[in-house]
Amino acid sequence: MNSKRNIENIKKNYSLGIIGGGQLALMLAEAANNRGIKVCIQTKSSNDPAGSKADYVIEADPLKVKGNKDLIKECEKIIFENEWIKIEKLNLIESKNVFVPSLESIQPLVDRISQKKLINRLNIPSPRWKSIEEFKSLDNEEIDSWNFPLMIKSYKGGYDGKGNRKINSYEDLNSFLETNSDECLIEEWVDYKNELALVGSRDFDGSIRFFPLVETFQKNNVCDWVLSPAEIDYDLKTFAINIFSSIVNELNYVGVMGIEFFYGDKGLLINEIAPRTHNSAHFSIEACSSSQFDQYVCISSGIKPPEINMHSQGSLMINLLGLKKNFPISIKKRIELLSQIKGSNLHWYGKSRESVGRKMAHVTFLLNEKNHSKRVEKSKDILTKVREIWPSPND
Asked: Residue 388's CB: how many other CB atoms inside 10 A?
């Protein structure tokens, strides 16, 4: 394991350490830089996205305890890029109180089954589900009560639709049950009108701050674009806020969290909980008085987080995913052309290799139309321009 210093004459200790070095860690490091906070990251390579903005890089697999211990020696507080961590190993480290959120509060959220159990315990609406192990023990009558299609989800490591599989018939179901492990859950299919997301923060004093509830638009289970704010009524917004508050207060969770919702004939249902910064709130960097990354950095560093207000009537965020090698427009040219679109705010993640579907960047536009339908119209116009330059590989 090697360490690489990115600047000269840095102190041995840092206010903030980040486990992970991808694009979320990059934007966390940028937020820390804006606050004058020194950052150390633990990631496999100093060439990972966040390496360019970190003051110090510990080159180690984020899942390796030795690297975690080295990070703790350097940093006052440790935050997480994502939830794919080894809780049982981190619990063996003496300085457990350095983590934000605490290991105890994040533990129920690191896999889908423990999330589902928490949601059930709090009586929060969500799609009906069973672990595969439980489903296999059902009798025929109980199985018949489940209507096709069904959704299979891996209970660990799934994101952007990875580990998801649609089951259309008994034949599909039997084939899956015979050939796959029990590390999955089965969920009823949800026909929804909208996919919504709510991101917020909770500080050590228990104060909760919210970003606008947004509508997300997916292609092939991957977020394509995000419109903020969503057009919803007061009661629905209040319900979403109450759900968020119930979860973070129950867990005594400190940090930033995102919740994905389905909304349709069955009302508002939780899809998934993300105990971290979330793709649906990237718009907050330009659109809000304090971004989701700034909130997490402030909370972790002992700075009172600013209140969250929007600078504009709305915003549009578009994800830019990797394309095929033979795509006729080079990355350099795509970036140049996108930067020429009026109002564009491009965030390039600095990844060394483009592969199909890989998150390479995002671009945000502020919307000043006061009417929601006008903002939707403007968003679709901008989306068309962006996709002429950088199409979605999921089209």
From this structure: 10
